[in-house]
Amino acid sequence: MFQSQKKVISNQYPTWKYLLLVLVTVLGTLYALPNLYGDDPAVQVSPAKSVQLTQQDEQQVQQALKSAGIQIKSAKFEQGKILIRLTNESDQLKAKSIIKQLLDRKAVVALNLAPATPEWLQAIGAKPMYLGLDLRGGVHFLMDVDMDAAIAKHYLRYVDDIKTSLREVRARYLKVVYENQQLEIVFKDKTNFEKGLKAIEQKYKADFIVQPQPDAQLPMVVLKLSKKAIKEAKTYALKQNITTLRNRINELGVAEPVIQQQGERRIVVELPGVQDTARAKEILGATATLEFRLVEEKGDPYRAEKTGYAPHGAKLYHFRDGRPILLKRDIIVSGDNVVNAQSGIDTRSGTPEVSVTLDSAGGRKMNETTKRNIGNRMAVVYIENHLIKVNKDGKEVKKRVTTKDVINAAVIRGQFSNRFQITGLDSPQEAQDLALLLRAGSLAAPMEIVEERTIGPSLGADNIRQGFMSVVVGFLLVLVIMAWRYKVFGMIANLALVLNLVLIVAILSLLQATLTMPGIAGIVLTVGMAVDANVLIFERIREEMRVGSIQQAIHAGYEKAFITIADANITTLLAAIVLFSFGTGPIKGFAVTLSIGIITSMFTAIVGTRAIVNWLYGNKPVEKLPI
Amino acid sequence: MEQQKMINFMGQRKIASIISTILVIGSLFGLFVKGLNLGIDFTGGTIIELNYDRPADVDKIRTVLQKTGFDSATVQNFGSAEDVLIRIAPQEGMNSAQISNKVLDALRAETQGKIDVRRVEFVGPQVGEELTQDGALAVIYALIGILIYVALRFEFRFAVGSVAALVHDVIITLGVFSWFQIQFDLTVLAAILAVIGYSLNDTIVVFDRVRENFRTLREGSPVEVTNIAVNQMLSRTIMTSLTTLVVLLALFFLGGEIIHGFALALIVGIVVGTYSSTYIASAIALALGVSKADLMKPEKTGPSAEEAEAELQRAFLEAEARREARLAEKASKS
Q: What's the complex ipTM?
């Protein structure tokens, strides 16, 4: 594209090159245009889980807003979501609370900035650039998933299953435990061991490496997950956590959240526009879940606490105030089975409560259990994970601690299946939080925030303003210098520079690559460096003018400078690519704008200026070049 | 307007190499003794930027934080009297949410008026370690990639010269950051990589001309030929450095505090890079004994390319002659 294909020396461009240039200019301008229109403050209403919004809802919302005296710029119902554009930001806040009241739990209401791109531009797919968090304000989290815990959990999932299969073949086992990062199945004697080994090998060979140890003190079988199974367990944990995070974030009401996997064990969460970061962190970081267990009524919990031994099939737990209680080892239902949970006030006692709805499997199990245990008590165990540091051999070691609190133990009054209430909560806030966590499902593995970047909205706005200012000022200065040094040719280079800037913006908009503050720095740097190609060409033309005719000088200037330009730009591109592949977040933004800038500047500085130079001076009797 | 002036750059290469050696040793000394003032991107920790609605009392903030248990916290104004930047080293047993909440609660309780949170950044120590490693790897891979490209495109000795110049630029830029203890964060690392790209750009342009001169100039020692090339490229080098510096100065003064380090690294890098591509890169290539023969041989297409060029030149002149004849004809007709 950069070299004329016909090897005829002539300072004239074929028509198609001019057409190409015009086409690129027009397309570039069109796709860069949406950035000039700015944003409308808007409220986005999306349906809550398992709810669908209708046209009717939209009309209701519009009416409610109108009667509250809020001016609606436009309202749109699209892909099950309602987007309402407003004229100013105070209306936006008011509208949000009105809609929230109106639709209540049916919908997630979020503040948003909707691009005010005109219809005809939207029709050709033109969108404004996607601004990064440092420009629009918001929170960026990097969460690290505890993979050891995920794998442990994966092992534990097999324990019940293995016990059942051993019972089926009547192989008597002493214990099936997860220890030393493997499953150990210990048998009473060799004959049971043989029977058990056969059953295990038959059933679990696909997932486990089976290591029989008949000559141990007690014969046992050791099961280790295969590499493939471990990888699957990790992928599962990551996926499950991403899904859970997505649910939780939906509850927060964020317009355009980004939840992405990064590497093998990390999840990136970006919440544009979120201002109450403390609450966001609480919701995201919480790793609480619930278990429903029957209370072991035989046995004395106080004695168990003193001796440290719980009766067979039971385990010692504590209430939040420290009272001990014995619970049965078998879990009836866990947080995974919860479909919905809502906080409210118990009409009889006036205390906060949470109404829970289970899925069908959970409901069936609950039904079976409650049928047999009317009059017995059922406890709700609240499990929470957090990190603490402990002193181990004089070294600080991070340790994950799991607290299991019994928050409630109530008598089962009647048989129930998938709908019931939890009472005995301290405050309405606690009921709300518990309901939220229950709804959001549980995490496959605990995770912690290892990186956080919060940009307040005021800083975001400042960054945009300052970034824009520096681009404009830098740009104008370069224009002046070029015009001063190269006269008319300098002006031609300036045209190319303007086109270059337009093209960078257009490509960034088209790719919807994230524009960050370092990205803007990349654009500024490109502006400074983009003139290099023209400087090289013009200096060469000046040089050649001393030895040859003007037409020859123009030709030679462009041809000879081309190789130099290509070499120089390819090496810079190399550095940019390295930056892109190693960098994270903001650095990537810098690398992207730098790379795009290098490529577009090659086009505008060589093809663009040559076209104008040829058009003005090519093959014309020019006495002196204004260079 | 131009009188061909020749500055004997290569004649001064001994002095230049002494200056460079001093600068590099000074920078390395600074790096070893004072080290870099690494930002939380690499060390881990928490940064909180606050905006007060009146000039902030930095000393009071410090005492409040000490009372709250953040003994290691550093507090400083950030850009203006109302803006404050608080830096907290990684805290035992506390995550980012707890730290920033605790700091804010303590400050809000002790201050009248409004405090606006501008930004909070928290990087876990583990992530910091990874970023340091990735950053170092990025620089090394960039250098290796460039070494290979230049060796393929030019000649091995040129590659050594250009990479030496790059290492020189990077070390001196790092030295400046170390001596003045300017915060070194991820964006500065990006700037260093951009410096590598830019400085190389400069070096390549000069080498390109050296290569061309070796082919076209019939006489002259390698030193003379190189010197001519540097002089031919001088106005271009100055112009490009000037335009780039101008935009960077705009970025430095108008881009806000966050981008300061980035702009500064590039400004230093470009000044040093311009100098090194003039003095260091070529001087090293010369010291390694680059000669005419080296550049003629590996270029297999050399002679044929020259022939083609001569052919083109001839065709061009013919076309021009024809055109002039036509014009003359037209002129005589009218």
A: 0.79
